[in-house]
Amino acid sequence: MMIKQANEADISILVTLIRSSFRDVAEKFKITAENCPKSPAFYTKERLEEDFKKGLRYFILEQDGQARGCVALEKASPDVCYLERLAVPPEYRRKGCGKILVNHIFDEARKTGVKRVEIGVISKNRKLKNWYKKFGFVQKGTKKFDHLPFTVAFMYREL
Ligand SMILES: CC(C)(COP(=O)(O)OP(=O)(O)OC[C@H]1O[C@@H](n2cnc3c(N)ncnc32)[C@H](O)[C@@H]1OP(=O)(O)O)[C@@H](O)C(=O)NCCC(=O)NCCS
Fold first, then answer.
1. Rounded to the nearest whole angstrom, what is the distance from the C-alpha of residue 94 to the centroid of ligand 1?
2. How much is the pTM?
3. CATH number of the domain within which 62 lies
4. For ligand 1, is residue 119 a contact (CB within 6 Å)?
5. Per-residue pLDDT tens over the stretch 29-57
6. How many CB atoms lie within 10 A of CB 19?
């Protein structure tokens, strides 16, 4: 397995990875294009182009030349990076791909000199929160946003 930093030529692969990975999340938490158009389940090429313009760095995990998953890193402030769009499609799950991608974000975040990695997750997604806790993430609070049909739990991990 290898991880490469994605560039604009990878946009359609990234859209496919993100949409296919978040489809079951959307079904489970009753997220639709109507009640949550911003969900990664409905990600678009245009949004990815905006991400690249904003300076988000995407990484793709590959095995035998095939994309198995992706993750993005956004530098939010001199001290904080966000881990975003972690996505492994259902057929490749539970083989350690997610873990490799999260650890890669820790490495890349350290290189940028930040002190902390933060994530926002669906608060009711207990399995996912427990999985992140195994990496040392701690929940720091929750927030309900008007434009989202679920409460967001914020978690952070000191580097
Ligand atoms: C979360 C995700 C990236 C994990 O990818 P993965 O390649 O399966 O990860 P790993 O193989 O390293 O770890 C598998 C672990 O995922 C855990 N897990 C995390 N979230 C889970 C969920 N919602 N349902 C079932 N298992 C989940 C399993 O318990 C498993 O742990 P275990 O093997 O110790 O029992 C993948 O499930 C995914 O893409 N989910 C949908 C998108 C998503 O929720 N992304 C995170 C947004 S913040």
1. 7
2. 0.95
3. 3.40.630.30
4. yes
5. 999 999 999 999 999 999 999 999 999 99
6. 18
**Ligand 1 neighbour 95 (Cβ under 6 A):** yes
Query: What is the pLDDT at residue 122?
Result: 98
Check if 87 has its Cβ closer than 6 Å to any atom of ligand 1.
Answer: yes
Domain that holds residue 91: 2-158
- Name which of 90, 81, 19 is nearest 48 in CA terms: 19
Residue-averaged pLDDT of the chain: 97
Residue 63's DSSP bridge partners are: 66
Give the three-state DSSP class for 86.
Answer: strand
Number of domains in the chain: 1
> What's the CA gap between 21 and 128, in Å, rounded?
13
DSSP letter, residue 8: G
CA distances from 93 to 87, 89, 100 (A): 10, 7, 12
d(CA 101, CA 85): 11
Average pLDDT over residues 2-16: 97
Helix runs in the chain, H state only? 11-28, 45-54, 97-111, 126-133
Burial 21-56 (b: 16+ CB within 10 A, else e): bbbebbeeeebeeeebeebbbbbeeeebeebbeeeb
